[in-house]
Amino acid sequence: MARIDKYPANPGWKDPSVSKANAIAGRQRFTRMQAQVLKLYEKGFVGTADEAAVKLDITPFSARPRCTELVKMGRLQRLRVDRSKPGRSAWVLGIVLAPVDLADLFDDGQPDERQEWHDYDPDC
Question: Structure pTM?
Answer without folding.
Answer: 0.67
